[in-house]
Design a protein that fits this description.
Elements lengths: L11 H7 L4 H19 L5 E6 L6 H18 L3 E5 L28 H19 L4 E3 L6 H4 L5 E4 L7 H7 L5 E5 L6 H12 L2 E5 L2 E5 L5 E5 L2 E2 L5 E2 L4 H13 L7 E4 L11 H15 L1 H6 E7 L25 H14 L1
Parallel strand pairs: 1-2, 1-12, 3-4, 4-5, 5-8, 8-11, 11-12
Antiparallel strand pairs: 6-7, 9-10
Helix pairs in contact: 3-4, 3-11, 6-7, 9-11
């Protein structure tokens, strides 16, 4: 037998009962969900900035980062809505390596899925409680949705998941903004097909149930760059790329056309310091082109307390153990620059 069934996981209901969301935070989340919706649908002309660590690997530095972000949010609230990245699952191309706190609460120890589910929820709850900000996460495993469905204000579907049927159908049942990244090939048609699928109702199986969904009209695209057949990174944040995307949106029956630009990953070639330049180019293009300003509603930025990245076991507080990130000083300055130019 290929599978060894180790133990049954607690249900989402059990985890939520153990670590409940307070009435105060429920109200805050409802308000922030509505604000994000209004930005994506054009009712609010503020700009989204989804920013934070590549992987939220440790509760204390992540919560410190989010608390700092909350203080900046107060200063830019008229222009920007900041959404902290509290990413609890890390995609792995080959399957090797640290897979995120939801799988491995201690990156130096063996995986522990039950402890991971608890650590994931506790960290996101604490970040919300201390900061008043509601988080974004990548839904790498669709069946994890119900463990955090009452916490997240934004969900991303990654480049390697966006072509998967179960991801597309599951997003159609989400009630929050959901960004579908372009696949690693860079094919815009694949990405837009995933948006179409997620925006419409579906009938399928989910977590052992037969379910129906109503469709998620807040599903939109995220441009994160691509990889060529020769293994080279290919950027898709430039003026011409976004104009082409706008034209393709026009050709399809999609609600609420919107794009978020990911400034790292293949757009930066994982050269994290390039994110500042990329962000400034995107903001410049929004200034000079009404079509781009109308379509591009936000940015994704990978940022942590300390710049760069480290190996697991180096124990530098607030430094990424996965992809390299901008440090706090550069990130804070960049947020203010975005606010001035949006």
């Amino acid at each position: 037998m290929s599978f060894s069934y180790l133990r049954q996981l607690p249900s989402p209901g059990e985890i939520k009962t153990q670590y409940p969301l307070s009435e105060r935070l429920t109200k805050i989340k409802k308000e922030r969900d509505a604000q994000i919706s209004d930005i994506l649908t054009g009712k609010d002309d503020r700009f989204l900035v989804i920013i934070g660590p590549c992987s939220a690997d440790s509760e204390d530095p992540v919560c410190e980062y989010v608390n700092r972000l909350a203080r900046v949010q107060e200063k830019v609230k008229e222009r920007l809505l900041l959404v902290p990245r509290v990413y609890t699952n890390k995609p792995r191309t080959t399957g090797d390596g640290y897979k995120g706190i939801a799988s491995q609460p201690d990156p130096e120890k063996a995986p522990d899925m039950i402890a991971g589910l608890i650590s994931m929820r506790k960290m996101q709850l604490r970040a919300m409680e201390e900061s008043g900000l509601t988080p974004a996460d990548e839904m790498l495993y669709p069946e994890n949705w119900e463990y955090v469905s009452d916490l997240l204000s934004y969900v991303a579907i990654g480049a390697r998941s966006v072509e998967d049927q179960q991801h597309r159908l599951t997003v159609s049942g989400f009630d929050v903004a959901s960004g579908m990244k372009n696949p690693t090939s860079g094919d815009f048609s694949v990405m837009l097909n995933s948006v179409y699928a997620a925006q419409h109702p579906h009938h399928f199986t989910f977590r052992g149930y037969e379910v129906e969904t109503t469709g998620n009209k807040l599903t939109h695209v995220v441009l994160r760059g691509a990889v060529s057949k020769h293994g080279n990174t290919v950027q898709n944040y430039h003026y011409e790329d976004i104009i082409r995307l706008a034209d393709m949106y026009e050709e399809r029956d999609l609600a609420n056309p919107a794009a978020v630009i990911d400034s790292n990953h293949s757009n930066s070639g994982k050269k994290y310091e390039e994110q500042t330049r990329i962000v400034k180019e995107v903001m410049h293009n929004r200034q000079i082109c009404p079509a781009i300003k109308k379509l591009v509603k936000g940015l994704m930025i990978e940022s942590y307390l300390e710049p760069g990245c480290q190996k697991i076991g180096d124990h530098v507080y607030g430094k990424s153990i996965t992809d390299p990130c901008l440090g706090w000083e550069d990130s804070e300055r960049l947020i203010y620059d975005i606010a001035e130019t949006c």
